[in-house]
Amino acid sequence: MAIRVRAAAVQAEPTWLHLPDGVAQTIGFIEDAAVGGAQLIAFPEAFLPGYPWWLWLNSVDWGTEFRSRYLANAMTRDGAEMRAIADAARWAGVHVVLGFAERAGAEIYLAQAMIGPDGRILVSHRRSPTSLEREVFADGIAPPVVHHTELGRIGVLGGTDHLCPERRVDLWREQVHVAAFSGFTVYHEVDDDSTIAVNSTVGEQYARDSRTVVIAPTALVPMTGWSVVDARSPEHLMLSGGGEVARIIGPDGRDLVRPLPPGRPGVLFADFVVDESANPWTDGQGFMRAC
Q1: Can you tell me the distance from the alpha carbon of 102 to that of 208, in angstroms, rounded to the nearest whole number?
Q2: How far apart are CA 291 and CA 269, in angstroms?
Q3: Overall pTM surpassing 0.70 (yes/no)
């Protein structure tokens, strides 16, 4: 059976460290996706309350200040904020894949939630942080899972998990993949275009290897043209805002639709078909096509 799907990928700057505004922003994008006819919308990793980009700054004082604010604005999996987002998904009749910083007691996790069009909430995965991210995030425990939905089998990974072969094996039966990126700052003299190229290659390669459609939302961090200099050496650039773009990629590694311009917030839509009768691991045939 062939299932026609319209998916949406968010490209936007989070409302940094302000959970109420972030929830309102998220609900607004869900409504936009519904108006655009999407059945599925995917948000960047740690979209609520934004990825902790201050980790790349060499200021102990900043880190201490931001950690407490980050914990206060992280979202629980069963709190009023998540319920409001789930209600929006139900009212809109849209599947939602949401990346958020999950507060559990005194711990924070890089989490992904799948919310069904009936408002049912499934927290699918807590990603293991990188060594630097351990300054904020605790180790994830559960492996990623594949959600069986009326749109097909949907798997989700965040950020650097795409570079871990053991994580990819967990998703071997997915038919649609959400590659949630948290946006990218550019450190020191690294070229912004190089950063975009590396992460775009990850999504393209994943699509080709798995023969799935890859929906890759991304955050704008914090915005194109943003920069921080080293106070001790003002001529030295420490960080600059990335110009990453959200993409929806076909199983051949090519864009199904032209991406939005770098740095411009919005929602990217694309149509494709999931063929439920095909299994790419047994029949050797492609099973996705653009509409």
Answers
A1: 31
A2: 12
A3: yes
